[in-house]
Amino acid sequence: MQSSTPKPSSAESRQCCCPSSTCLATNTNQKGNTHTMLRIKAVNHGSKSTDKNRYCGPSAISAVTGMTTGEAARLLRKVSGRSCIKGTWSYEMVRALAKCNITMTSQHSYHQKGRMTLGQWLKHTSSVRGSNVFLISAGHHWQLIQGRRYVCGITGEIVPQRHSRVKRKARVKDVYLLTAKGRVTKPEEAHKPKSKVSECYLAFRKYCKEQGLTYEIAYDNYIEFSDGISFPHYGDWSETMHRHDDTKHGGYDQD
Predict the structure, then answer these.
(1) Which one has a higher pLDDT value, 7 or 184?
(2) Of 168, 190, 212, which residue is a domain's last?
């Protein structure tokens, strides 16, 4: 899958993502610095259609931060400058998770020849992974591993690493250790912008209410008031309000 973004280095491979469907514990070290123990959890698709993205990049971010996949996709759009998130480059995941106070540290990048499968990697690292959280690129798909637990956009929920939906034969390309110092946060970029109602429009509505007016905007962009006054409306509610008032008092000729 090609991207409009200039092609990054081999360590920044883009994942061709598959469609799909942390709880946090904090502790303080002796110096008073707060560290966060990451724990993977089920992918959060939220309760609204705008909360949902079905691809694996947003799903992986959701499963480690707790934000919805829609919020994760919004964050990825912000850090990547792209308008649609279907596949993600590694560097975009790095930037997005950094906004959440999570660091991606590369553990190994496998070359095309001699790549081990996900199943082989799981077996090879079983005695050293501990409770650490790993983000893995395998089979052009992002997935999270913690101990013997697994989650991705395909499984949706946490499953055992030997679950039938875990693609154990997929070839591993990149492995990242995820760590966080301090609390995991949901950055401002992930929030859906609140719609801002124009102050001029609110003033216009207040004027109509005080004057006992109703209005309609015709197909030709004429605004027609219930008192018989009509004229072209160009989207400037302040101008429309003042023009109606002037026309009503004889200071403005109707078109």
Answers:
(1) 184
(2) 190
